[in-house]
């Protein structure tokens, strides 16, 4: 289940890019965990001639080690696009390749996951028992006409269209009826919402100690590597999509995250900065896990708005005024940061950005507080 540090590691890794009528930014942070086990992939143009206007993005949330998630990040795309099920069928009129059909993509994604899982089972460190790691996987293939999503585990993808969450993948938890039935049919049990009382996800790549039931196929084991695949036709109202691990979803709902990102995209054009704000906010909201998020913006994405920037600046000024007022109004014993933070949160609760709450403005509150009380001992703990 993972061990925790005494203090979170808050350094972030960022990437970003542009192409194929989209932009992307990403952020990842180790947080409270002893090891960083997340990995990711972002490929704006898939490096095969007939897929150059297709893009691929993925997030992998490793557990019990980082080996499987790292291999997935390096190899899953190749396993999907290079298997025979995915490749476009030859056009018999001129013998050239055409782009894969929806059915090809669905079949190719599933085969790619299973092939990669089979390959990793043969890795020496897995065969020897030295490595017992596993990883969730959530990925998206963006074609000129469609958005394909594939999910295996409890990382999640959401699509924001026309100001609301229009689509989300389904988490694979052992308590889900279909998952529980498969686990029990393989001779296992679901205890404390975990596979055999241990693993919190019912589908994953790796985790080979849960995939040894005789007479059962790869998708019938206690833990299945089979992805659930979805497709959405692209729409001019598509704004952005998000791929993220459960370190994000543990503390923000689909609607909260969509609302927060839409709001912050009106304040800054940097998708990396928006992702950093999400990660920081989730840490303050109480996430104890590694955190990774990939944000992909389409042509219909919100653009920076002078009005939104003005309102955000006015909120910061309102926060400053409230902190000053509290320090002047309250007796000395109520001047500790925890009291001030929660008082500002309570008194301005209707004013904070949607989905972010007071947590997304904690750094502003903190900055004002320490400017007004430069000798106060820093106290970042939430009371």
From TrEMBL:
The organism's place on the tree of life at top rank: Eukaryota
Pfam families documented for this protein: PP2C, PP2C_C
Matches recorded under CDD domains: PP2Cc (cd00143)
Transmembrane segment boundaries: none
Keyword terms: Cytoplasm, Hydrolase, Lipoprotein, Magnesium, Manganese, Membrane, Metal-binding, Myristate, Phosphoprotein, Protein phosphatase
Organism name: Arion vulgaris
Major site of localization recorded for this protein: cytoplasm
Protein name per Swiss-Prot or TrEMBL: PPM-type phosphatase domain-containing protein
